[in-house]
Amino acid sequence: MKKDKLTKAFLLLDEISNIIKLSYCDLVSWRYAFDHWELGQVQNINGSSNLCLIHDDDHLQFSTIIPPGCSFDPHRHDFIEKVTVLSGEFYEASRRKTYFSGDVVLYRKYETHVPGNHSNEPCIIKVDFLKKS
Known about the structure:
Radius of gyration: 16 Å
Oligomer: single chain
Largest sheet: 6 strands, antiparallel
Low-confidence stretches: none
CATH architecture: Sandwich
CATH superfamily: Jelly Rolls
């Protein structure tokens, strides 16, 4: 009986910790993303590899590989983000949902999200930043 209560308490603490993390997330603005990426540039973010494929005034696109066990920090944007899962498993911690090859994930403007990969295989996604809604 004590073990069940202790387990529930730890789960509740984990839940509270996740809520606190989501409350203090960073805003990645369109201007910041646009100014800090160039076409063909690769950037490493928390272990993921992100290649800029499109760099237009109202559209940025990336090919992203998220290794097993990696995730992005909680963040949000002042634009729409569309993620298309190309292979592997894409986990969205803020929704507590796993997406699979062919799935599309849409994030509204200012929606906090924590994308990652909790599987044992790399996850490959196409990410579109869309300035106009």
